[in-house]
Amino acid sequence: MDKDKKGLTTSWGAPVGDNQNSMTAGSRGPTLIQDVHLLEKLAHFNRERVPERVVHAKGAGAHGYFEVTNDLSSFTKADFLSEVGKRTPVFTRFSTVAGELGSADTVRDPRGFAVKFYTEAGNYDLVGNNTPVFFIRDAIKFPDFIHTQKRDPKTHLKNPTAVWDFWSLSPESLHQVTILMSDRGIPATFRHMHGFGSHTFKWVNNKGEAVWVKYHFKTEQGIKNLAPDTAAEIAGVNPDYHTEDLFNAIEQGDFPSWKLCVQIMPLEDADTYRFDPFDVTKVWSQKDYPLIEVGRMVLDRNPDNYFAEVEQATFSPGSFVPGVEASPDKMLQGRLFAYADAHRYRVGTNHNLLPINRPQSGVSHYQRDGQMRSDNNGGGSVYYEPNSFGGPEESPQHKLASFEVTGSAGSMAYSHDDHYTQAGDLYRLMSKEEQARLIENIVGAMKPVARDDIKIRQIGHFLKADAELGSRIAEGLGLTEQIDFK
């Protein structure tokens, strides 16, 4: 054997003498249980798949960097935004929402847009979508919503009746539904779509002064979308089309990039703005709060191993760094728990020890033990706090900014219930051709719904957003005579 060529070993490091033939009792005899190399290979193979993500199961990812281009340190003390020209490594994962691991990339579905910033103060995860809003605004509705997007437990098929039944009974979904059914519902590639933090967050500066903030990643490749017929054809020919496109673009040196901008709202405006600024089904008008450039994200390196880096990457909107905090957004508040808990179940309680998730800043804490502990488990160091042995201590300068809370505890709804203005404004901003395609997409998606009363209820929401939009959908579904247009 070539002396420079490495010999095959078992997982415990012992040399393997034969990797082609299992041990048997004679040439035809049964396999011997003492063939521990065979047993280990089969046992490991049976366990090679971790549970897929409940949502965002199908995705692609890439490494890159974020570079600050505008000094916003007066608004936030976040170290990775501290000076123009500063670069921070990032890992970004794009995904569809509802499909399984083997599903097609080119379906009509929101796209996940998650960025992990490996900052000097720990990892900061910005976990959003390619849309600025979402279907619901309270996390208590999320399991029910996702159930409608998954497979029917009886037929194991997608169920349009469940989808539109839920949406028609949840009018807050109308804005996102309008976006989803528009041209932007099927991006041409991951490179040709915007990304959004979607939620409202809080920025805090070194003086303890705070503002509300929304994130916008603007693609520098330009927006491109797929026509439904083209998307369906691609889904049949190459279901991994978006994954392949991202990998090949980076491999060929055509590095995709996005400009990061933010909208900033003074804290006091939250009490007087015409929409609740923490309602994730609504946007802030850019006329009221213009986009401010922050920096530029470039993806320039493909993963070396998909499973280790893309599949085992874990993102949580609760992974904050000093200078960035949560807002009262009810959907965000639920995600602060749900995402990290999903990773503890799917990848393991020590998922942040994996190389793709490990903070480059290092960690100092008292968490010990648990499955898949891959470091020295703290060695013999002190394992509790407070202690008298010089263990890591809290940093009072990094305490979260306080905020005022008022009212009675209870199951409270948002006080603003205008679910129609922004959806109608979006429709009226579209060209005639875009409007026609939107209506065609909605009609096509609603035709399979089993009950007319569900269709009629949903048409009622479209009518409230824009009378023309609703009437054209009713006409397309053949339900004009059953609709009260008053």
From TrEMBL:
Polar residues: bias regions: 8-25
Keyword tags: Heme, Hydrogen peroxide, Iron, Metal-binding, Oxidoreductase, Peroxidase
Family assignment from sequence similarity: Belongs to the catalase family.
Catalytic activity from the UniProt record: 2 H2O2 = O2 + 2 H2O
InterPro entries the record matches: Catalase, Catalase_3, Catalase_AS, Catalase_clade1/3, Catalase_core, Catalase_haem_BS, Catalase_immune_responsive, Catalase_sf
Top-level class of the enzyme under EC nomenclature: oxidoreductase
Name this polypeptide is given: Catalase
EC number: 1.11.1.6
Cofactor: heme
